[in-house]
């Protein structure tokens, strides 16, 4: 996730509690989605789609924070 912004992500993980919370939640959701897709932890389609939407929402917010950090530290 955000492979091209590794330095900024690492800085935000250390400096910004909201970013870290969202990052951790995205990682948690990624595990849940993978588990559902492999059948390890079956989930109905509605719940799975909601998880995917939440992950995208969080990643969009994190991308905004990365862009803001880039502008402030350019």
Q: What is the overall shape?
A: elongated
Order of helices and strands: HHH
Number of helical stretches of at least 4 residues: 3
| Nearest-integer average pLDDT | 94
Rg, rounded, reads 14 Å
Quaternary structure state of the chains depicted: single chain
> Which regions contain 5 or more consecutive residues with pLDDT less than 50?
none
The structure class reads mainly alpha
**Quantity of strands, as a count:** 0
Report the sheet with the most strands, covering strand number, pairing sense and barrel closure.
none
Tally of discrete structural domains: 1
Fraction of residues in H or I helices: over 70%
N- to C-terminal separation? 22 Å
**Which percent range describes the beta-strand content?**
under 5%
């Amino acid at each position: 996730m955000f492979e091209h912004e590794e330095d900024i992500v690492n800085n935000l993980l250390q400096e910004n509690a909201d970013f870290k919370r969202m990052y951790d939640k995205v990682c948690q959701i990624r595990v849940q989605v993978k588990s559902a897709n492999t059948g390890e932890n079956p989930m109905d389609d509605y719940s799975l789609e909601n998880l995917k939407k939440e992950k995208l929402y969080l990643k969009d917010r994190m991308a905004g924070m990365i862009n803001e950090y880039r502008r402030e530290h350019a």
